[in-house]
Specification:
alpha/beta, Protein-Tyrosine Phosphatase, Chain A, nine-stranded mixed β-sheet, 20% strand
């Protein structure tokens, strides 16, 4: 608001933010004409209804929704009622013999959409069956288990030794097992409509505190990279598991993406990656101790490229 003094000594108050109607009329429209959309879709040889549907799906909502998380039928499938699941990025199960809900989210990689899936560990017979269906559907190349292999959650993912386990109509069979400092399992998955697939499963049993990064985190990452040097850049190539599917999994995601960015582009976009992660996976990296610990690790990694 501005105060203007006139020649006769009187004053008046003017709204400085108000734009005259004349200046508004002179401006060109800032809205796209519907025919521009038609022209764009025609040039790209895509039916109009398909293009509109694709645009609707791709446009992110400013305010995320959590309808499926709060659905009464899914309550028993959520380990932690404080770790919400975003409708926009959640993995929708399509394998038969169950519902479409599992507490897991797609997160975009550095250059590949939905390259990562961050998920909670199964904690009941119900969620164990759903987890089997999740793995069968996604066919991940790598499954990273950020928990003790001897825990109930750890045992529910991989059978002990060279055993096998069937849940939800999906069979997990250990084809090969290597134990050094870290456990590495080659897992065969069969029985679902998606066919047979194989995955490399890695356990990090040394991570015991959710609020503290283990000292050998980079060593474990190098171990995984050595065993699987080339992971295809495709949807759901990496499945990252921790108890709530957010805290430890979020740390792993940032380490992976920022290390890749350093190797390929010689720079770090720490804040950018964290914003992306938090938008797609609720509750990820919300602990200050993990945040500062991760910065320390990435500084050491970056020093190798200087």
């Amino acid at each position: 608001m501005d105060v203007i003094k006139k020649k006769d000594g009187t004053t008046s108050v003017v709204n400085a933010g108000k734009i005259s109607q004349r200046s508004m009329r002179k401006q060109k429209s800032r809205f796209f004409h519907p025919m521009m959309l038609v022209q764009y879709l025609t040039e790209n040889k895509k039916p109009i209804h398909e293009g509109i549907q694709a645009a609707f799906v791709d446009i992110c909502r400013e305010s995320p929704t959590y309808f499926e998380f709060f659905n009464d039928k899914n309550t028993t499938r959520n380990r932690n009622q404080k770790t919400l699941l975003n409708d926009y990025s959640r993995v929708v199960l399509t394998e038969p013999s169950g519902g479409d809900y599992y507490h897991a989210s797609y997160v975009d990689g550095l250059s590949t959409p939905k390259q990562y899936v961050l998920a909670q560990a199964p904690f009941s017979k119900e969620t164990e069956a759903d987890f089997h269906r999740l793995v069968s559907q996604l066919k991940p190349e790598v499954i990273v288990m950020l928990m003790n292999e001897e825990s109930n959650e750890g045992k529910s993912v991989c059978p002990e030794g060279k055993g096998e386990k069937t849940c939800g109509g999906i069979k997990f069979k250990v084809e090969e097992e290597n134990k050094s400092k870290y456990r590495h399992v080659k897992l065969a998955v069969s029985g679902g409509k998606s066919g047979v697939s194989k995955a490399n499963v890695f356990y990090m049993s040394t991570w015991t505190d959710d609020k503290k990064l283990p000292g050998d985190l980079m060593e474990f990452k190098e171990f995984v990279q050595k065993k699987c040097p080339t992971v295809p850049a495709r949807e759901a190539a990496s499945l990252v598991i921790c108890k709530n599917g957010a805290k430890r999994s979020g740390v792993w995601y940032i380490m992976e993406t920022e290390t890749e960015r350093l190797e390929t582009k010689k720079r770090i976009r720490f804040s950018e990656s964290i914003r992306q992660l938090r938008y797609q996976r609720y509750g990820a990296l919300d602990c200050f101790e993990l945040y500062t610990g991760l910065i320390d690790i990435m500084q050491k990694v970056a020093s190798k490229y200087v």
